[in-house]
Amino acid sequence: MDLLNNKTAVITGGNSGIGYATAADFLAKGAKVLITGRKPEAVQQAAAALGGVDSFIADQGKTGDAQKLAAYVRDRYGKIDILFVNAGVAAIEPFTSVTEESFDTVMDINLKGAFFTVQHLLPLINEGGTIILLSSVNAYSGMPGASVYSASKAGLNSLGRTLSRELADRKIRVNVVNPGPVATPILEKAGVPKEAIDAERLAKVLPVGRIGQPEEIARLVSFLASDDASFITGAEYNIDGGINVHPLIG
Ligand SMILES: NC(=O)c1ccc[n+]([C@@H]2O[C@H](COP(=O)([O-])OP(=O)(O)OC[C@H]3O[C@@H](n4cnc5c(N)ncnc54)[C@H](OP(=O)(O)O)[C@@H]3O)[C@@H](O)[C@H]2O)c1
């Protein structure tokens, strides 16, 4: 219950999926929580359902919004302890079909937006605070159709490593979480029809025999955000039901 007592957290993309589950977990563990999102109605609904969280409308694809978010956080909280950069979009598109526009859409949110969200909020993070970047096992896989998405996530893993060194003087820990397939609406939002998402086939490839639940990712994020993880920085965690382990035979 007390794992995150007296900590203030900002979660980007907190109205759905992993961000929403993490907001609930942070709250249950005693943190003060601010969620962001780009759709006012969805964000307000999520905040109401969570109960007791603050919310702010900010599109992670617009660096101006990161500045506005930072101004809001400064005025309202002064300082924060936890920044969970979770907002992201998926894109499934063959390499040859990728346009400059579709490339920019994904990169602007997943990588550029994440980068400048951290940069604008950084002055507000307390010494001893922590940043967690939500990447994906795609950062290391060669999944067909995921060239832009995977590259955007690989950029985040790189950023996490660099920041863990650059922010060490301020005792800010920076870690990256790489989930495997998790039951959230992200693929449907990316236009992948529900019937094309073969969860059963996917589950068979996973040693645990099922895809993940957002709450399972949330618990790892809460641990990394807590002082129990005080010796952990510059690290990445696969949380993927074992999908990253490919048997050569069998
Ligand atoms: N689900 C998986 O299998 C999986 C696996 C590995 C990594 N991930 C990563 O996990 C993170 C969370 O995704 P999820 O699976 O929980 O999907 P989700 O339910 O769609 O949640 C994504 C969240 O990010 C928000 N978001 C997207 N673009 C945004 C923008 N421009 N500005 C502000 N908020 C924005 C979404 O808001 P809207 O509702 O407005 O879209 C939503 O709140 C993403 O970074 C994703 O890449 C997911």
UniProtKB/TrEMBL annotation:
Pfam families: adh_short_C2 (PF13561). It comes from Chitinophaga arvensicola. Belongs to the short-chain dehydrogenases/reductases (SDR) family. InterPro entries: KR_dom, NAD(P)-bd_dom_sf, Sc_DH/Rdtase_CS, SDR_fam. Gene3D superfamilies: NAD(P)-binding Rossmann-like Domain. Residues 7-185 form the Ketoreductase domain. NCBIfam families: PRK07231.1. PANTHER family: DEHYDROGENASE/REDUCTASE (SDR FAMILY) MEMBER 4, DEHYDROGENASE_REDUCTASE 4. This is NAD(P)-dependent dehydrogenase, short-chain alcohol dehydrogenase family.
